[in-house]
Amino acid sequence: MRVIDDRLIARPSAKRLWPIVAAAVLVTLVFAALSRDFGVTWDEPQRHAHGYVVLKYWTGEPAVDVSRPPRGDLYGALFDVAAILVHDLIGGDVWMARHYTNAVFGGIGVLVTGLLAGRLFGTQAGLTAVVLLALSPRYVADSMNNPKDLPFAAMTALALFSFTLLKADPPFITWRRVLLVGTALALPLNVRPGALLYLGYLVVAVACLHVNARAWSLRQLASSAGRLLLVTLVMLLGGCLLWPWAQQNPFVRPFQALVSVSDFHWSGYVFFWGEFIRARDVPASYLPTWMLITIPPVVLAGTVLSLIATVGSGRERRAFLAFLWLVVLFPIVAAIAAGSTLYDGWRHMLFTYPPLVVLAAAGWWLLYERFPHRARLAVAGLFAIGCVEPVVYMIRNHPHETVYFNAIVGGPRGAAGRFDLDYWGNSLLEATEWSSNLASKSGVPLIVAGQPWGIVRADARRFTTIRARLVEARRHHLELRLLRAEAGPSIADRPSILYAVRTADGAPLAVVLRGPRFGDVRDRLAPFLHQRGN
């Protein structure tokens, strides 16, 4: 029995895949429409500036010191350059253009995840994967304004999808497809050096095909080695096109970058189970805990079902499931074993989520297939009920999908005071908008300040009735403060707080405080300060 059915994998009909494509396109359009509601995040100003540096490098301006990574940055600029080009094309607010671009990358992730599930387990599994990924609140949030983790997750999903071009018999990858697979691997390398992991996964896949086909001859092994070498060359050369530092030595520097980011040290703290812990000293339970409490239960259930589905499944499906579990677990286990610096939940492992969703979709669909017709209705009902929970959350909490916590920890309110909440600073946009509305209603131009300064300044530029100034200048009327882990829900009830941004269940995310010059405008603002919370 073959590990890969060439009729299913290598030459799928467009007719069989078009429902997945149509569903993903619809999701992408919804993502783009929603992206306007999200604020600027920590990394966006820096990544935007880096994109311009790379563009200047390509135009011949001496803007990059190629002897070292710019500002210590060990990442490529695929997304950042794309966002700048989109802004040049459509104009308007630069952050809106970035968010539109982010939404498109999120949609690409949905598309290729659905196609991957469809190629491996059938069209219905592919549609299930599209639904599960589109209904994952944190993936939705990252699709709006995460300029690093989300593009990398989308491009690595594309790289995995390219593996379906492998054939079951020698030669396992034709010369014509070497370029396609190499290019698919080069795209995520233009975002992060972690893409090199996928070259390793490709080698594993080809080795498994050799074992299955009993292709042991020296000629067959040499043929595969030569083709893999060419894939590697395409990946390394193409993967450094938007990475000037690595481009100077594409056969060495990407590997140096991978080692550096794996050993990255950040001196900050994370809030985990009610305690502040250095990011470089987090316990081994950090990643598993965060994933357990922030992934929708319907996805978690599907992954468990994928393990159960291996019992009694054919050899092909067991091979697919085992390979996907390898892709999901290896980087997580490696990060824990290496004692890597971890913070902001598991966003740095977001690239493991699309294959995890494929596993979940396979689990649900394989369970559905095994039951007789009447019992299938019960499986479909359970799946639908599972999808209701994240849908309700997103409707009630938009645009705060980034602070989704499932019922295991009691939702955002249950997580408040125990875990970091809005580590991205997305909720500051609502605080800024409230301040702008207050200025409009009162007719008083207001000066705002706050931390993180880059986020406050960028969000404030959307509005004409307020101006942002540094806190140190002490010229501001209102101060915006992001609450990540300072205290539980009661912090937003203090009398000194003018407005609190909250989730639907009451977890505080950000507050608006009186600034040093609030007294200058107190009387004129007083009639409009009757609302202190959302």
β-strand amount: 5-15%
Number of helices: 22
Mean pLDDT: 91
H/E order of the elements? Answer: HHHHHHHHHHHHHEEHHHHHHHEHEEEEH
Rg over alpha carbons? 24 Å
Report helical residue fraction.
Answer: 55-70%
Give the terminus-to-terminus CA distance. 60 Å
Total count of strands: 7
Neighbour order of strands in the largest sheet: 4-3-5-7-6
SS-based class: alpha/beta
Largest sheet, strands/sense/barrel: 5 strands, mixed
Mass-distribution shape: globular
What count of structural domains?
A: 2
As residue ranges, the low-confidence spans are: 1-11
Would you give an account of this structure?
- The chain is an alpha/beta fold and 534 residues long.
- It has 22 helices and seven strands.
- Helix 4 packs across helix 5 (94-121) and helix 5 (94-121) packs across helix 7 (137-145).
- Residues 1-11 have low confidence and may be disordered.
Concise account of the structure shown:
The protein has 534 residues and is an alpha/beta fold. The protein is built from 22 helices and seven strands.
List the SSEs and their pairings.
Layout: H1 6-9, H2 14-34, H3 44-58, H4 78-90, H5 94-121, H6 123-134, H7 137-145, H8 149-162, H9 175-189, H10 196-213, H11 218-238, H12 244-247, H13 253-262, E1 269-272, E2 275-278, H14 286-294, H15 297-309, H16 315-338, H17 353-370, H18 373-397, H19 411-415, H20 428-442, E3 446-451, H21 453-460, E4 466-468, E5 478-482, E6 497-502, E7 508-514, H22 522-525
Parallel strand pairs: 3-4, 3-5
Antiparallel strand pairs: 1-2, 5-7, 6-7
Helix pairs in contact: 2-5, 2-6, 3-4, 4-5, 5-6, 5-7, 5-8, 5-17, 6-17, 8-9, 9-11, 10-11, 15-17, 16-17, 17-18, 20-21
